[in-house]
């Protein structure tokens, strides 16, 4: 199972500070959102509900709430792109049927709708370049996610003896949630206090103080995985997103995620497992895997 490692703490902080975070997707047009019910102040909503606000734009509930204003209570609501134009995660190149085919034994926590909702934070993901490139990036992300979680089965790191090791007390903010609180969680098994801090800062969520959100809130879990994929190079030289859209190949995504432990002949079996997933997923999506599959 992956342990989120960056070559040095300094590198981790530099990457987190220097890598631009992609802007959230634009709100959907009023015309495309007209099919959703109007938001009603004080009416109880549950996670996943989609409403049309007074400005005609759509919002999706990320958490149950008693009818909070979507434009004010942004922890409970986020803009929902309900048309299917460019830059819109509604046009995800992986259908729900294909997602279920990829992950037949997945934990229900890892829902397709949760992933599509989280994609609004990084609209360039699987939506850049040709249709082939879009499918290749989606397959590459999901292949690595599958490897990290045993096919989207595990939500948290299984080796509990590792839990106390992911606290770097040299950070000025320390480990306020406790030394053993920053173990691997979510689709890319986010770990280490400095990664929880950087991801939380980018997403506007206090993950340093409450890392358990990643294992209890599916939308947050998917967002941390997309944060890493789209903005972090890890022990590699580029992000997973850039590796796929710029033609560097799947092998460089492995390097950015766990290259210090797997690449350059260090653990060929783990690399092969990721490549096998990628080849299978590209086949499901009806596209070629391209070259440079190994790191």
From TrEMBL:
Q: Residues in domain Chitin-binding type-3?
A: 36-80
Active site residues per record: 148
User: Known InterPro entries for this protein?
Assistant: CBM5/12, Glyco_hydro_19, Glyco_hydro_19_cat, Lysozyme-like_dom_sf
Q: Which GO cellular component terms, listed alphabetically, does the Swiss-Prot or TrEMBL entry include? A: extracellular region
One Pfam family from the UniProt entry?
Glyco_hydro_19
Entry's CDD domains?
A: chitinase_GH19 (cd00325)
The lineage, from the top, is: Bacteria, Bacillati, Actinomycetota, Actinomycetes, Kitasatosporales
What Gene3D superfamilies does the annotation carry?
A: 1.10.530.10, Carbohydrate-binding module superfamily 5/12, Endochitinase, domain 2
The biological processes this protein is annotated with in GO are: carbohydrate metabolic process; cell wall macromolecule catabolic process; chitin catabolic process; defense response to fungus
Give the UniProt keywords, A-Z: Disulfide bond, Plant defense, Signal
Q: GO: which molecular function terms? A: carbohydrate binding; chitinase activity
Tell me the organism. Streptomyces acidicola
Q: What protein name applies here? A: Chitinase
Q: Disulfide bonds, which pairs? A: 167-175, 263-295
Q: Which SMART domains match?
A: ChtBD3 (SM00495)
- Leader peptide range in chain numbering: 1-30
């Amino acid at each position: 199972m992956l342990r989120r490692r960056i070559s040095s703490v300094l590198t981790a902080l530099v990457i987190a500070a220097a890598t631009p975070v992609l802007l959230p997707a634009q709100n959907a047009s009023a015309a495309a959102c007209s099919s959703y019910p109007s938001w009603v102040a004080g009416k109880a909503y549950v996670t996943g509900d989609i409403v049309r606000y007074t400005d005609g734009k759509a919002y999706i509930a990320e958490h149950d709430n008693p009818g909070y204003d979507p434009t004010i209570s942004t922890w409970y609501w986020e803009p929902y792109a309900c048309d299917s134009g460019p830059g819109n995660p509604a046009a995800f190149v992986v259908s729900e049927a294909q997602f279920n085919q990829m992950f037949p034994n997945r934990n229900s926590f890892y829902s397709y709708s949760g992933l599509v909702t989280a994609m609004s934070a990084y609209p360039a993901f699987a939506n850049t370049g040709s249709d082939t490139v879009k499918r290749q990036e989606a397959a590459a992300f999901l292949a690595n996610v599958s490897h990290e979680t045993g096919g989207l089965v595990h939500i948290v790191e299984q080796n509990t003896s590792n839990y106390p090791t992911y606290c770097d007390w040299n950070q000025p903010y320390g480990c306020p949630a406790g030394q053993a609180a920053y173990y691997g969680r979510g689709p890319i098994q986010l770990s280490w206090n400095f990664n929880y801090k950087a991801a939380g800062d980018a997403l506007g969520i206090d993950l340093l103080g409450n890392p358990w959100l990643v294992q209890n809130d599916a939308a947050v879990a998917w967002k941390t995985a997309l944060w890493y994929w789209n903005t972090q190079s890890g022990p590699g030289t580029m992000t997973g997103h850039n590796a796929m859209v710029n033609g560097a190949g799947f092998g460089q995504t492995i390097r950015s995620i766990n290259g210090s432990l797997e690449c350059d002949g260090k653990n060929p079996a783990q690399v092969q497992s990721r490549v096998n997933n990628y080849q299978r997923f590209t086949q499901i999506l009806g596209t070629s895997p391209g070259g440079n599959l190994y790191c």
